[in-house]
Amino acid sequence: GGAMEYLCDIRDVYLPSLGTMTFRVHATVLDRDWPLDRPPELPRESSDFFRIVGFKSFADGTLGSRTAWMLEPYSDAPHTSGLAMEHTLRGELVAWMRAVQKTGLSPAVHAIGDRAARVLIDAFDACADTPAPRFEHAQTLHPREIPRMAGRFASMQPLHKADDARLALARLGAGRIERFFAFKSLLEHGARLAFGSDWPIVSPDPLLGIKAAVTGLDLDGRPFATAHSIGVADALVAYTRNAAEMLGLPGGMLREGRAADFVVLDRSPFEVDWARELPAVDATIVDGRTVHARTPMLRAAPLR
Q: Which of 101, 96, 140, 121 is nearest to 228 (CA)?
């Protein structure tokens, strides 16, 4: 999976565990107070289970705190449209993204408001396509921006939709709900949805995320902005192939040359009524080895 971590935690927690990890981590570094001409020295250690793939910057805040940077004022706080932060506030976003790409890593940018999104996509246009920049969250998008995401990664978190849905109408007003977590429209315009959780803010369980993406139910069980809901197949691709390819992970699909990383569900995800039930994970296999099994019978020998 992808993790957002500070360098001190990478050195103190991940690197000492390199030989014992049972899941793959491709980490994005949160340290961002560095001169643009001098990125920090990164640890050189890596393995099949851990490597550093990028740096992260915050373009704005959050919808809940009304600090997401919006094109128009908040419906429930007309005196504010949120605010820009960090490199975006200082007018350095493009320079920072280019500096990250020069190191061979991917720039990931947190942008939740529709104004922050516009500025970020402008920055995408001014940067190289590789290493691919990542648009983290993409929670509100003006319809003008959606076609501009064609071929680009939108790193989104369906459980954040289920969480923020409970306050979105107050913050945005009815006229802007079409901008809120526009999964379906992004797909229709060729964006590459890559789903994750943003744990520990919400549960890391991808099955709960699939439920949110396909049903449109909020965390209280009420439907919200269901016009943006997508099918199970698209949600599975977003949680597997696209997420893996965005991070450069070796898995994401079962085929020759990819890693044998997969889960075994107790029933087909295409036959589940996601509004009422979730499939159970019978077993988790990483690198061909069973690392979790619900019953002793499933604790088989390694696949190789």
A: 140
Task: Return d(Cα 100, Cα 134) in angstroms, integer.
Answer: 12
Element (H, E) at 58: strand 50-58
Both tokens of 14, joined, read: 């991940």
Residue with token string 């192939």 = 241
Instruction: Fill in the amino acid letter for 204.
Output: P
What is the rounded CA–CA span in Å between residue 207 and residue 226?
Answer: 18
Contact 145, 135 (CB under 8 A): no
What is the DSSP-derived secondary structure letter of residue 65?
A: T
Distances (CA, A) of 43 to 11, 22, 96, 171, 304: 8, 20, 20, 42, 32
**DSSP state letter for 267:** S
Beta bridge partners of 29: 5, 55
Q: What is the pLDDT of residues 249-294, one digit of tens each?
A: 888 888 898 899 999 999 999 999 999 999 999 999 999 999 999 8
CA–CA separation, 102 vs 93, rounded Å?
A: 14
Residue 92 CA to residue 132 CA, distance in Å, equals 18
Cβ atoms 180, 139 nearer than 8 A: yes
3-class DSSP string for 223-259: ECCHHHCCCHHHHHHHHCHHHHHHHCCCCCCCCCCCC
Structure tokens at 138: 């993409």
Residue 125 CA: distances (Å) to CA of 18, 107, 122: 37, 13, 5
Give the tokens for residue 179.
């901008």
Dist CA 19 CA 301 (whole Å): 20
Per-residue model confidence as pLDDT tens digits over 212-233: 999 999 999 999 999 999 999 9
pTM of the model: 0.92
Identify the DSSP state of 189.
Answer: T
Question: What percentage of the chain's residues is helix, strand, coil (to nearest 5)?
Answer: 35, 20, 45
Distance CA(36)–CA(141), nearest Å, equals 29
